[in-house]
Amino acid sequence: xxxxxxxxxxxxxxxxxxxxxxxxxxxxxxxxxxxxxxxxxxxxxxxxxxxxxxxxxxxxxxxxxxxxxxxxxxxxxxxxxxxxxxxxxxxxxxxxxxxxxxxxxxxxxxxxxxxxxxxxxxxxxxxxxxxxxxxxxxxxxxxxxxxxxxxxxxx
Length: 155
What we know:
This protein is mainly α.
């Protein structure tokens, strides 16, 4: 049915994009992402969500394929960032040889258009920690958390 215009409402698009970035993405079934793709087979947020879902299920080739499609079809701006963050997550989960370099390349692409992107910093930090670069990873995570204020009760 794709003919250049999506039948998906803006609210639904935001909801799918948000779910693709959160733990809730794993609670969705491929059928739910497929419903969005029935309307627009090039809808990058749904492709990214399916990539994350299949990575969590351990189906690596499928997950990587969906993420590559998401990156290919992503429109500029937020969709590009979403697809790259999904790629970072899948790289972290799958862990194929050279995964950290690919995650870092996605991170660089994101920060080129969205400096200090919280999601990119978070997944880069987690990736660095997984790779044994704990201090570097903590630095990125601290950028996401931000400075703690004195007397706030947070440690």
